[in-house]
Amino acid sequence: MNGYFEYYLKKLSKKILNKCSLNGLDNHLIIPRMTVKEYLFVGEFLKANSSKIYIESGSGGSTVMANKYFGDLYSYETDPRFVAYLNDLTGKKIVELINVGEVEKFGYPIVQSIENAKKISACLLGALNERRDRSAIIFIDGRCRVLTALNCAAYLNSRDIVMIHDFERKFYHEVLYFFDIIKLVDTIVVLKIKENLDLKLLEREKEHFKLDFR
Known about the structure:
Strand order of the largest sheet: 3-2-1-4-5-7-6
Shape: globular
Structural class: alpha/beta
Number of strands: 7
Helix content: 40-55%
Oligomer: single chain
Number of helices: 9
Largest sheet: 7 strands, mixed
């Protein structure tokens, strides 16, 4: 019950302070755009796996939450104002800008080009390449979610975990050609990579989603 109380108290307090244009307590009050079940599950899951590295596409309340548990955290975001806000909020430069030009609400690029889709969907690969033998938790909650997961697929091992938010969107289920479901909590799915990837199918799926920014 304490977790439920915390969730609703933070949500209500943040809403009241937002109306007053006060954000001094955001680092303590900000929560991800999640249901209470998702919020509690993700918090416990990240805490239990804090020895891994954390890599995310799409920043926000999840970044602040992960910052409590992970020493190695990589976050990527398309909205420059949100990048500045979160880095100022955490006091660290943990969110990196994906430069796709001007963006609309929720970080959608004004120019939805193949070039911008490549920038977004490949943003996690540098961190994955540099991690050496450490396992990772990858949280995908930004733009180009399917293409991002597909681009990560060839870089993953059986110890890595991929989480995708809003998995009720049926077209996100295309990733299940390459991933197995470990757990599903409301709209957050926890995945692991299949053992034998069909690389030809993987390339076809990448082509299919090359301009999908959802």
